[in-house]
Amino acid sequence: MDSKYFKIYNDITVKIEKKEITPNTKLPSENEMMTLYDVSRDTVRKALNMLESNGFIQKIKGKGSFVLDINRFDFPVSGLTSFKELAEKLGQKSNTHVKELELISPDDYLMRHLKLSPEDEVWKVIRVREIGNRKIILDKDYFNKKYVPELTKEICEDSIYDYIENELNLSISFAKKEITVQQATSEDKVLLDLKNYDMIVVVKTHVYLEDASLFQYTESRHRPDKFRFVDFARRQH
C-alpha cells in the first residue's frame, strides 16, 4: 500500500503535468494541506520534500511552495553544442547580449585552466543568453589568442564556433565538462532573471581542437529551473 505522503506527491504531480496547477502557482500552506489530505505535518513535509527533489516545486523560506515550469530545455551534457545551435534546435526565440569583450593577460586561475604562461593573451567574453524573453544563461568564455587571434562584438553576438570553424578553419573536437550547483553570485543576480532562486547550475568546460590543443575555457551559469541536463550512456562489456 502506498504511503500517505506518496499519495499526496502523486496527486500534485498529476495536476502539475495536466496543467491543472500552473507554473508559479503557490501551493496551499502546510496547515491547509494537513486538513485537505487529513494527514500529519510530517507527512505533508515529506511530500513537499519529494516534490522539490524531483523538480516540481521550489520551497522559498517564509513564502511557501511554488510550482516550477516542468517544460525544461534539454542541455546535452555529452555533446559540444553552441548556444546558437541549441536555440535553433529548441525552436525558441533567443538573443545574445555581449556584456564584456576584451583582450586580457591571464591571471593564475586562467593560466591553470588554459595551460598558459604570463606572456600569453586571452580573449575574455561575457555574454547573457536570453531564451523566450528570459535571461537564463550567463556565459563566461576565455579563448587563447594563439588560436583565436581576433574577435568582434558581431561575432560574439552570432556564434564564435561558426567563426572558428568556417572563418579560421579550425576543427573543434572534444571537451571535458564539470557540472556543479553553486550559490548565485551578485553578478548572477544582476545579469540574469533569477526570480527567487539563490542557486545556479555551473557547467565548466575545457574545449580542445582536433590536434588536442586546449583553446577555450568556459563557465556557463544556468538558472536551475530552466534546464534538464541529459546524457546517453552505454554499458561497456
Features:
237 residues; alpha+beta; Arc Repressor Mutant, subunit A; Chorismate lyase; 2 domains; 6-stranded antiparallel beta sheet; 8 helices; 10 strands; 29% helix; 34% strand; WH-like_DNA-bd_sf; transcription regulation; repressor; Bact_HTH_transcr_reg; transcription
Mind explaining what this structure looks like?
It is a single chain. This protein has 237 residues and is of the alpha+beta class. It has two domains: 4-67, Winged helix-like DNA-binding domain superfamily/Winged helix DNA-binding domain (Arc Repressor Mutant, subunit A, Orthogonal Bundle), CATH 1.10.10.10; 73-230, Chorismate lyase (3-Layer(aba) Sandwich), CATH 3.40.1410. Helices cover 29% and strands 34% of the residues. The protein contains eight helices and ten strands. The chain has helices spanning 4-17, 30-37, 41-53, 83-90, 108-114, 153-158, 160-166, 186-191, and strands at 57-60, 64-67, 73-76, 94-104, 122-131, 134-144, 172-183, 199-209, 214-222, 227-230. A six-stranded antiparallel sheet has the order 4-5-6-9-8-7. Strands 1-2 form a two-stranded antiparallel ribbon. A hairpin with a 4-residue loop joins strand 8 (199-209) and strand 9 (214-222). Helix 1 (4-17) packs across helix 3 and helix 2 (30-37) crosses helix 3 (41-53). The longest helix is centred in the N-terminal third of the chain and has 14 residues, at 4-17. The chain starts with a helix and ends in a 7-residue tail after the last strand. The model has no long low-confidence stretch (mean pLDDT 87). This is Trehalose operon repressor. Keywords: DNA-binding, Repressor, Transcription, Transcription regulation. Residues 2-70 form the HTH gntR-type domain. GO terms for molecular function: DNA binding; DNA-binding transcription factor activity. It comes from Alkalicella caledoniensis.
